[in-house]
Write a structure and sequence with these properties.
With about 300 residues, the chain is of the alpha/beta class. Among the domains are: about 5-75 and about 145-215, P-loop containing nucleotide triphosphate hydrolases (Rossmann fold, 3-Layer(aba) Sandwich); about 220-280, Alpha-Beta Plaits. It contains 10 helices and 13 strands. The strands form 3 sheets. A 6-stranded mixed sheet has the order 5-6-7-3-8-9, sandwiched between helices. A hairpin with a 2-residue loop joins strand 1 (about 5-15) and strand 2 (about 15-25). The chain is elongated, with a radius of gyration of 23 Å. InterPro entries: AAA+_ATPase (IPR003593), ABC_transporter-like_ATP-bd (IPR003439), ABC_transporter-like_CS (IPR017871), ABC_transporter_ATP-binding (IPR050763), P-loop_NTPase (IPR027417). Keywords: Antibiotic resistance, ATP-binding, Nucleotide-binding, Transport.
Amino acid sequence: MTAAVQAEGLTKYYGDRRGLEDLTLEIRPGEIFGYLGPNGAGKTTTIRLLLDVIRPTRGSVRVLGEDPRTAAVRSRVGYLPGELALEGRDQALDYLRFLGRVRGGVPGSRIEALAERFDADLSVPMRKLSKGNKQKVGLIQAFMHEPELVILDEPTSGLDPLVQQEFLALVREVRTAGRTVLMSSHVLAEVESVSDRVGIVRRGRLVAVENVAALREKAVRRMELHFDAPVPRSAFEGLPGVRDLRVEGASVRCTIDGRPDALVKAAARFTVVHLVSAEPDLEEIFLTYYSEEERHHDRQESA
């Protein structure tokens, strides 16, 4: 199947400043791809290149199998920018109806259904919309024409928790329908909850692309075991992946890199009365990648 996004060596410089360098990435049809990084890492530059808002310094990109400069591609893509400018005296509903006509005709019922899901009041003039309501209108226009690819830049900014959950439910529905979502964010929890894969970008470079399940397997987790009697420290020392070991009487605390199989087998020699495993999240994984990249960058700087 044709990739939803195919980038090869995609690079963008703003004068001497690097916005993005040598991005090679394939996003598959029907997947949710999380694009992670702090502000200034290169996420928005990537999105603008995909949408042909800016042109690359070098490299190439294809969106839905086409050159993004092709006008026909744009009607197949939904886009929510990180900074959404909605001004004017027109009601939000009139604005959305206008966009619907431009995109080839979007049923009014579709707009109304999305507005109901997001609890959006579309009777308010756009210039009077709060930040949260502007974001709701932005989400409605991104999804309403049922595009094959939806590109979202910081999609939950300004939304209350209930609307965030409704948004994530909609993203899952889009995937079920076989369409693709690229979601750029620095809010790791929301990306973790829906993404199939994530890319981590730092200082304009893609430093990792991983399945979310594989990332969790690699992640550090904290474990705590309690036994019915004191246990010897020697039973848990030197186990693969076990570090920061603390043995105090009948309790064992440690951190685990990767799978806890060796620790579980060692604990099975004794009577376990209680076990607590703190499930890792992408925050820790993300920081691990960033600290590794920081060390790599520092070594290059000092070389």
